[in-house]
Amino acid sequence: MGSILVMENFEAHFPGLTGSTIQGWLVAALELGAWFGALFNGYLSDRISRKWSMQVAVIIFTVGTGLQCGAQSGNMLFAGRVVGGVGIGMFSMVIPMYQAEIAPPQLRGSLVSLQQLSITVGTCISFWLDYGMHFVGGTHCDPAGVPGEALNSAGTLEPYIAHGHTCLGEKAISWRLPLALQLIPAWILFFGMFFLPYSPRWLMMKHRDDDCIAALSKLRRLPADNNLLRAEYLEIKAAVMFDEETEAEYTSYAPQIFEGFGFTSVTTDLLATGVTGILQILFTLPAVFFLDNFGRKTFLITGAIGMCMCHVIVAGIDGTYENSWPTHVSAGWASVAFIWLFAVNFAYSWGPVTWVLTQEIFPNSMRSRGVSIVASTNWIFNFVIGLTTRDMLASMKYGTYIFFACFCAMGGLFVYFVVPETNNKTLEELDVYFGGDDTSIAQADRERMRRIEEELGLAGLQVEDFGTEKKGAVQEAEHGAESVNVQ
C-alpha cells in the first residue's frame, strides 16, 4: 500500500487520501484489523480446528481484497483494509501454530520459519510488481481536459484538480491489479488445505484418538501400528490429559492469569524498497536452514545487536547531515545501506524466530489462546508504529532511530537473561520445561504427569528407545520406493 499511495492515478482517484496523517491511518487500518483477527482466531481455531479457521480467514481476506481493488471511495478503501487485515491477523496466528503442531521436533524451527520466508517473498514480489506497474501508461496521470493546470509549481500533481478526469497516462490498473493479485496465494492456500490433515494435537484435544493416529500416520508416512508413531501419539495424549486436569483444577484463576499479562523520486523510493525485499528473502534463508542447528537464542541475540547498531549508525549519519543532504548524497546512500542492513538482521532473526518461539512457550491446552494474544499484540504495535513513525521522524528526527535502538538493545538483553533455549524439544516436553526443572517444578504437576504416563504405558520410556524401529521403518519405506521404481 505504501508504494501505491504515491501513484498519481491513485491520488487522482482519492484526493482526500493524500495527507500524511490520513495515509498513516490507511496503512495502519490493516494492522488494526489484524489485531482483532489474531485475537478472535484463538477462540475459533480451538472451536472449529486450525484447518477450517484458515479457510474462514481466506473468505474474510477475499472480501477485504475485493473492497480494496474495486474501491470507488476512500471509505470503501478503508473498509477493505480493515476487513482484509482481519483475515491477515487470523493467518498470522493460526498458520505457524498449525505448522508447529504437525512438525517433528527436529524440523519445527525450519518449517515455522518458512512462514517468514513466504512473507518476505510476497513482500518482495509486491514491491517489484508496484515498481513495474508504476510505468503502465506512463509515470504521470496527465488528466484529460486539464493540461498544465493539474500540476503545481513544483511540477507534481494536484489531486483535487485531477479528480474526476480520466488519466491519459498512468492507468488505474497500476494499483488495482497489485491489490487483486493478493487473491492468488490466498486461494492456493484454500484449496491446498483440503489435502492436509487436521492438527493431531487439536484432534486429541477433541478426544478423536483414531483420527489423531490417522493424521500422524499421514504426516510421518508411517503405518498406524508403528511403535515410533504410537509413542508420539501417547506423548500427545499424555500432554492433553495433563493440561485438561491442570486447567480443570485452576480454571478459577484463568481470568486473573490472563489479566496480569532525503530521496524524493517515486521511482527511486520504489527501487530502494524493492532491494529491501530481495535482501529480506535472501537472509530469511539462514533461519530456515540453520535455526534448528544453532538454537533460537543465538539468532535472536545476534539479530538484536545488529539491528541496534544499524539504528545507532543511521542516527549518527542523519544527525550530522540532516541539514545538508543535497551536498552529501553519499551520506544519504550510507543511511539507506544501513537501513538495508537492518532489514537483513531482522530477516534472519526476529522476523522468523519469534514466531517459532511463540509456538513453543505455551502448554497444549492454552496454545491457541496464548498465540492469539501474542499475534494480536504484534499487530497492535504494528498499528501504533505505522500511525506514529511518520510524525516521530518529523518531530524527533534522528532521535527516532535512537528510540528504536533502545528497544532492540532491551530485546537482546531480555532474550539473554530471561528466555530459555527451546531448540529440539517436543511441544510436550516444553509444557513441563517451562514449569521449571526437575527440582523446582510443582510436586502436584510432577505426580500428575507420572500417573498419566504410567496409565498410558509411557513411564520410563524415551523416544530414543524407538530409534531401531524408526530406522527399520525408514529402510522399509526406501525398499518399497525402490520396488516401485523397478516395476
UniProtKB/TrEMBL annotation:
Q: Where in the cell is it found?
A: Membrane
Which positions fall inside the Major facilitator superfamily (MFS) profile domain? 1-423
A single GO CC term for this protein reads:
membrane
A Pfam family per the record: Sugar_tr
Q: Does the keyword Transport apply?
A: yes
Provide the primary localization. Answer: membrane
The record's annotation in InterPro entries points to: MFS_dom, MFS_sugar_transport-like, MFS_Sugar_Transporters, MFS_trans_sf, Sugar/inositol_transpt, Sugar_transporter_CS
Please give the Gene Ontology molecular function terms for this protein: carbohydrate:proton symporter activity
Q: Which SUPFAM superfamilies match?
A: MFS general substrate transporter
Membrane topology according to the record? Multi-pass membrane protein
Give the keywords, sorted: Membrane, Transmembrane, Transmembrane helix, Transport
Q: Which residues cross the membrane?
A: 22-44, 179-198, 270-291, 298-317, 337-358, 370-389, 401-419
Family (UniProt): Belongs to the major facilitator superfamily. Sugar transporter (TC 2.A.1.1) family.
The cross-references to PANTHER family, in alphabetical order and at most eight, read: MAJOR FACILITATOR SUPERFAMILY (MFS) PROFILE DOMAIN-CONTAINING PROTEIN, PLASTIDIC GLUCOSE TRANSPORTER 4
**Name by which UniProt lists this protein:** Major facilitator superfamily (MFS) profile domain-containing protein
Q: List the source organism.
A: Coleophoma cylindrospora
